[in-house]
Amino acid sequence: MEPMASRRLVILTEGEFGPHHAKTAWGVIRYGRDEIVAILDSTIAGRNVDEWLPGHDIPAVATLGEALAIPGRPRPNALLIGIAPTGGRLPDAWRAVLLDAIAAGLELHSGLHTLLGDDPEIAAAAAAAGVRIVDYRRAPDRMDCAVGRRHLPGRRVILTVGTDCAIGKMSVALDLRRAALAAGDRAVFVPSGQTGMMIDGWGVAVDRVISDFLNGTVEWLVEQGEAMGDWILVEGQGSLDHPAYSSVTLGLIHGATPHAMVLVHKVGLAAHDFDHLPDRSFPIAPLRPFIDLHERIAATVAPSKVVAVAVNTSLVPDEADARRAIAQVAAESGLPADDPVRFGAGPLWAAIREAVDALPWVADPSAAGAQGRA
User: Fold this and answer.
1) What are residue 203's phi and psi, to 5 degrees?
2) What is the pLDDT of residue 275?
3) Are 184 and 101 within 8 A, CB to CB?
4) How crowded is residue 71: how many other Cβ atoms within 10 Å of its Cβ?
5) Residue 326: helix, strand or coil by DSSP?
6) What sign for the dihedral angle of Cα 347, 353, 359, 363?
7) Domains of the chain, CATH where assigned
8) What proportion of the chain, given as a percentage, has pLDDT over 70?
9) How, if at all, do strands 187-190 and 156-162 pair?
């Protein structure tokens, strides 16, 4: 991806505006740099995003025509698909909206596995109208296998991992970057998914990459990150024990060879998000054994340690209860724990920074052995 020009977005979430299925919309709203003119979703029309995400004054409208002519707001120049459904498929009912957006001169920005630029009807309409289609999940032309690259001297690579998918690994990495920059650390966010790419303007949606090249793609993404800063925060994907998405997690661990990992855990969640097979239950793993599993799997390529738990307390409305839940996670894991999204990432970043610098393979890179990072 090349750096993005400034955009004025209408975000399409029809019937799906919530923190789970519309996590792309929520991520772009919370962390993105673009002006968001409206949410296009007839099921919440007349309401405002401020109800869900305080401080974000974005109206919801029922039709594209309304989004194009909101009094006091600029005309949008791009339509962004704001959902991340299982399998990443384009809902058939949305085709007409996309064609109308093209006719109105709007670019299309999509993170779906359904590549809009490969759809004959949509691509032809865009070409005729002279508008651009950006498919964030289009795999890069570069196809490299991992070579066991060593990290640059002085760099610290941290990967967010999780006890489930869609629980905040990207948000945690972005908030940790914010805290690191505020503390004067040269921190870089490495996007590995479509929403992170929409926010930062570069990266690769690694779940689209051929499996032989997954580790290698992550390896060269980290290399690019190391050219931009000292603390490299790699966005995680999936979870190691998720029956559908474990492979991308493994590729990130072995491709990034992180010095350390931060485990993201959502309290109050009993089983994995597996809504396309609702009759099957895959419980969330106990924390301490799951932490040990990550470290053992990482060590088959290069040593790494889980140094903190980032707790997602969104299912715990009461602040006092949320803080008690965080304390329980800290006791169970034996690690520093906090909710960096809800309570600020500064304290957790300070604990992570101290723990990473104390790791033997960071203090003395030769301790990592022949396969370790220098």
Assistant:
1) 110, -175
2) 64
3) no
4) 4
5) helix
6) negative
7) 8-135 (3.40.50.720), 156-368 (3.40.50.300)
8) 94
9) unpaired
Unique residue bearing structure tokens 């990459």: 209
| CA-wise closest residue to 258 among 373, 159, 154 | 159
Q: Stretch 319-335: mean pLDDT, rounded?
A: 98
Which residue's structure tokens are 């006092």?
320
* Contact call for residues 262 and 235 (beta carbons, < 8 A): no
Mean pLDDT, residues 92-116: 95
Q: Are 187 and 235 in contact (CB under 8 A)?
A: no
Q: Return the axis-axis angle of helices 169-182 and 346-357, rounded to nearest 10°.
A: 80
Per the structure block, which two tokens stand in for 81? 């698909």
Q: How far apart are CA 274 and CA 243, in angstroms?
A: 8
| β-bridge mates for residue 307, sequence order | none
Would you state the structure tokens that stand for residue 120, as one six-digit string? Answer: 């004959």
User: Over the stretch 157-191, which tens digit does the pLDDT of each residue have?
Assistant: 999 999 999 999 999 999 999 999 999 999 999 99
Query: What span, in angstroms and rounded, lies between the C-alpha atoms of 74 and 67?
Result: 10
